[in-house]
Design brief:
By secondary structure, the protein is α/β, with parallel strands linked by helices. The protein has 14 helices and 15 strands. It has helices spanning 2-23, 28-31, 40-45, 60-69, 85-94, 104-108, 125-134, 149-161, 176-187, 216-219, 230-247, 326-340, 383-396, 403-423; strands at 51-56, 75-81, 99-101, 115-118, 138-141, 166-168, 193-201, 253-259, 272-278, 284-290, 298-304, 307-310, 315-318, 360-361, 427-428. The strands form 2 sheets. It has a 9-stranded mixed beta sheet with strand order 14-13-12-11-7-10-9-8-15, with helices on one face. A 6-stranded parallel beta sheet has the order 3-2-1-4-5-6, with helices on both faces. Strand 5 (138-141), helix 8 (149-161) and strand 6 (166-168) form a beta-alpha-beta unit. The longest helix has 22 residues, at 2-23.
Length: 440
């Protein structure tokens, strides 16, 4: 049985090397420096070594990371921590040999822990990250960076002073679809970026069952402002990072509206948000999210004057596509002529109709002809790869370039959006939170 497990881990290791070699090849490293440590050659350097990691926060996301750790050959889970017994018990069933803690500060005193993975409610991210860095541990923390802007700055400054690696789970930075999509965007394939459209729609109340009333705010922490930034920090954080990645700069101003439209159950965070971010060159991010209708799902679209990249689906479209078949071209032209036959005495406008675009995959895979949905990487979003990178850093001590800075930028944009919605005014990015990494 043990021999079979070793074989499985070795097969998994080869798969990692193959995948990461694909991701980090060629000129990609110049524009995505966080992938430099993820080449096959780098992975070979740690052959036979293991990172001793501990998990703080054993809820659903924490257990998701535990499952991913099973496929990372250079990771060993040595400790688990949670102050909620049911979560700790569930995690212990996955790793029965791991030591159990109810106080994370006691865990940080352990000498056999190289790095910690923090998967706790948002308001605990900053204090736990700061304590872990101070204790000399490498840190992998869930997004967003922190609950407040001042905490974000404190974490960033502590990281700059530290010789430890710090990762935030900005997994799109390690997602094959997004990496290839950014290659296309930065190569000029879709021309000049003229707009960015992101949305994330769900239909669920975010509420979890509470065994006793005093646990309400602990278990349903996402619903309360003291512990959560709502839709912006829970969902938009990832998407705003993608927009800045595409633009290579930060927005200057933010405006928006937020409301509790449907889930009027005592929650304090908005269940419906619309936000506009404006860059110095006039390009805007239009962001929308609500959790009472899931029809439109999730999309991260980069719009250029020559085409569009839909990152989420792993597809791009061109405005003028020479791959349109002759018959489809004739049909399209005939349709346009029909619509264009407007009497001179009629209206002075005609409705824009959405033409049939040819979808092209960003990475190898099949597209459903009927739905246009990509099946590429449907069950992978980069979470396993960034976690593997963290475990590697626990061994080598190498910091991943730009990951902390990207998390800092996107988190601040989320928090500023909440401020703009609360105060019902346009917010200009505050000078005191600018860092050298930022371009405006």
């Amino acid at each position: 049985m043990e021999e079979n497990k070793k074989m499985e881990r070795e097969v998994s290791r080869r798969e990692f090397i193959k995948e990461l070699g694909y991701l980090a090849g060629g000129a990609v490293l110049l524009s995505m420096p966080w992938l430099k440590s993820q080449t096959p050659e780098k992975l070979k350097e740690i052959n036979g070594q293991g990172a001793r990691v501990a998990l703080i926060g054993c809820g659903s996301r924490g257990q998701y990371h535990l499952h991913n750790l099973r496929s990372i050959p250079h990771a060993e889970v040595v400790a688990l921590c949670d102050d909620y017994e049911p979560n700790l018990k569930a995690a212990a069933e996955l790793y029965p040999k791991a030591r159990l803690y109810s106080d994370y500060r006691s865990l940080l005193e352990a000498n056999d822990v190289d790095g910690v993975i923090i998967a706790t409610p948002l308001h605990l991210h900053a204090p736990m990250t700061l304590d872990a860095l101070a204790a000399g541990k490498h840190v992998f923390c869930e997004k967003a960076m922190a609950r407040t802007m001042s905490e974000c700055r404190a974490v960033y400054e502590a990281y700059k002073r530290s010789n430890r690696a710090l990762y935030f789970c900005m997994q799109r930075m390690y997602d094959p679809k997004y990496i290839k999509g950014m290659e296309r965007v930065h190569s000029g394939l879709i021309g000049e970026i003229v707009g960015l459209r992101c949305h994330w729609f769900r239909n669920a109340d975010w509420r979890r069952a509470v065994p006793s009333p005093e646990l309400e705010r602990r278990i349903n922490w996402r619903l309360y402002r003291e512990s959560s930034g709502g839709l912006m920090t829970e969902l938009a954080c990832h998407q705003l990072e993608v927009c800045n990645w595409a633009m290579g700069r930060m927005p200057e101003t933010i405006m928006g509206m937020g409301d509790i439209v449907f889930w009027k159950d005592g929650r304090e965070v908005y269940d419906n948000v619309n936000v506009i971010y404006r860059y110095a060159n006039g390009v805007k991010i239009n962001y929308e999210s609500l959790i009472s209708n899931k029809y439109n799902g999730m999309e991260d679209q980069i719009l250029g004057h020559k085409g569009t990249v839909d990152m989420t689906k792993g597809i791009y479209y061109l405005e003028e596509d020479n791959q349109l078949s002759g018959i489809r071209q004739l049909l399209r032209e005939g349709k346009e002529k029909t619509l264009g036959a407007i009497p001179t005495a009629g209206p002075s406008w005609r409705p824009e109709t959405r033409k049939d675009y040819v979808p092209h995959t960003l990475v190898e895979g099949q597209i459903s002809v009927n739905s246009g949905q990509s099946t590429v990487g449907a069950d992978k979003d980069g979470s396993d790869v960034i976690l593997s990178a963290f475990c590697q850093s626990c061994i080598t001590g190498e910091k991943a370039e730009n990951v902390v800075e990207e998390a800092y930028c996107s988190t601040l944009l989320c928090l500023l959006a909440n401020q703009a919605m609360d105060e019902k005014r346009i917010i200009t990015f505050p000078e005191e939170y600018k860092i050298p990494y930022m371009k405006f």
